[in-house]
Specification:
The structure holds two protein chains of two kinds. Chain A has helices at about 60-65, 90-95, 130-135, 215-220, and strands spanning about 1-5, 5, 10, 15-20, 20-25, 35, 40-45, 55-60, 70-75, 115-120, 120-125, 135-140, 145-150, 155-160, 165, 165-170, 170-175, 180-185, 190, 195-200, 210, 210-215, 225-230. In chain A, β6 and β7 form a beta hairpin. Chain A is mainly beta. Chain A has four helices and 23 strands. Chain A is globular, with a radius of gyration of 19 Å. Among the domains of chain A are: about 5-45, no CATH class; about 115-215, Rieske Iron-sulfur Protein, CATH 2.102.10. By secondary structure, chain B is of the alpha+beta class. Chain B folds into two domains: about 5-105; about 120-170, no CATH class. Helix content of chain B is about 55%, strand content about 15%. Chain B has helices at about 5-35, 45-75, 80-100, 105-110, 150-155, and strands spanning about 120, 135-140, 140-145, 155-160, 165-170. Chain B has a two-stranded antiparallel ribbon with strand order 2-3. In chain B, α1 runs antiparallel to α2 and α2 packs antiparallel against α3. The chains are: A mainly beta, B alpha+beta. At the A-B interface, β1, β4, β5, β8 and α1 of A face α2, β1, β2, β3 and α5 of B. β1 of chain A pairs antiparallel with β5 (about 165-170) of chain B, so a sheet runs across the interface.
Chain lengths: ~230, ~170
């Protein structure tokens, strides 16, 4: 999700092409082409400019609604008969071919779903499967201690920095629902939103880290130096 | 014994040849970028640069080609027989077609852009199932969710959340 502003002026974007299965869009003002995955202008008068990232979540509707009962939801576009994907679009998309070259010894398949994190100049991919089996995952990216949590539905993922008041914490999932984490250092209880809800750290918030759910081939294309988190 | 072509015949031949080249060039202006950035094919930085340059200049260049084509057509019309006149008129069709195609965004034809984004409160969103994934944002106390099924089709949803203009992409 990008801030639709360049040089303080609101921009409108149009779908304009495709680059190795990640789409390109152009702005109305200059016609420059922007890469969806990176938010960077790759051709045109604005080449080299980058859109600001707007922190966002990719989570289940149930998880979102629980936290934002008063939020608003985009209505389907009823100007055409099929202006949204079918409910099984992910299974359909997974069958589509991949055009970026395969690499020998690649530990992941091109259409494996990963959660990508960029921090401190480093990029790291967390296979969805590893997150589902091992959540909460404590790790470090670019020297920054991070925490990745898979929600109860197994598909909603959030990432945070796990340093509070200068001290990195380690987290454990408390058995049972709803999802609650406990930190080993103070025994405080934390929610999926990264907020301490009970204990001595109550009221503290973990710093948000943007995570991008992506196909492995796409994440690798735009983060060629990425490392991969391995199931331990 | 063959006779040398008259000045008028040679002029007509050159004009016809120029018209033919013009048609090829105009069609290439729209076909080459469409080919280079077609889905399910790998793209290279060089190919993308060519596609961008052609897409940028094609709207102007194809109109110039059409104007030049009209001028040639007028000169060929004069003194032409009925079949050569018919050919000249037919030749203008691809030139006009190229000028139209250069202004046509096939990607927005395949995936209709969302005009005004309209919303309903979370409690009334009965078209979204609990397990459906959404892209969600909260800015300055305002929260909005965009079901992935809808964003994945449109690719881009433009909105203002908590005063911040956003392009939601998937």
């Amino acid at each position: 999700m990008w801030r639709a502003e360049v040089d303080g002026r609101r921009q409108r974007f149009h779908l304009t092409g495709i680059n190795n299965q990640n789409f390109l869009m152009h702005d109305e003002e200059t016609g420059s082409w922007w890469q969806q995955a990176s938010g960077e202008a790759v051709f045109g008068p604005r080449k080299g400019w980058r859109l600001d990232l707007v922190p966002y979540d990719e989570i289940s509707f149930a998880a979102w609604k629980r936290e934002h009962p008063n939020g608003r939801v985009l209505r389907p576009d009823d100007s055409g008969p099929a202006h949204q994907f079918s409910r099984d679009w992910e299974a359909e998309t997974a069958k589509e071919p991949v055009v970026t070259p395969a690499r020998t010894g690649d530990p992941l398949r091109p259409r494996d779903v990963v959660v990508g994190v960029r921090l401190g100049g480093a990029a790291r991919a967390y296979p969805m499967e590893a997150l589902q089996r091992q959540s909460p995952v404590q790790d470090a990216v670019g020297g920054v201690p991070v925490l990745l949590i898979a929600g109860e539905d197994g598909r909603s993922v959030r990432a945070f920095e796990r340093t509070v008041d200068g001290r990195p914490l380690s987290f454990f999932a408390r058995p049972g629902a709803p999802l609650r984490l406990v930190d080993a250092e103070t025994g405080s209880e934390w929610s999926f939103a990264g907020e301490a809800t009970a204990g001595t750290l109550k009221g503290k918030k973990l710093a948000w880290v943007q995570a991008l759910k992506d196909y492995w081939f796409d994440w690798r294309t735009y983060n060629p130096a990425t490392s991969i988190y391995a199931l331990r | 014994m063959p006779t040398a072509p008259s000045p008028s015949r040679s002029r007509r031949r050159w004009a016809g040849f120029a018209l033919f080249l013009l048609i090829l060039a105009a069609l290439a202006l729209v076909a080459v970028p469409a080919f280079l950035i077609r889905p399910f094919s790998p793209q290279t930085p060089g190919g993308l640069a060519v596609a961008f340059a052609l897409r940028r200049w094609a709207p102007l260049a194809t109109v110039l080609a059409l104007i030049a084509g009209l001028a040639l057509a007028v000169s060929l019309w004069r003194g032409g027989r009925w079949w050569s006149r018919a050919l000249v008129v037919l030749a203008l069709i691809p030139l006009a077609g190229a000028a139209w195609l250069a202004r046509f965004n096939i990607f927005e034809r395949m995936f209709a852009p969302l005009g005004d984004s309209r919303f309903l409160p979370a409690a009334e969103a009965n078209w979204v199932a609990d397990g459906d994934m959404v892209l969600a944002v909260e800015r300055n106390g305002e929260a909005a969710a965009y079901p992935v099924r809808q964003v994945a089709y449109h690719h881009i949803v433009q909105d203002v959340v908590g005063g911040v203009p956003v392009a939601v992409t998937y």
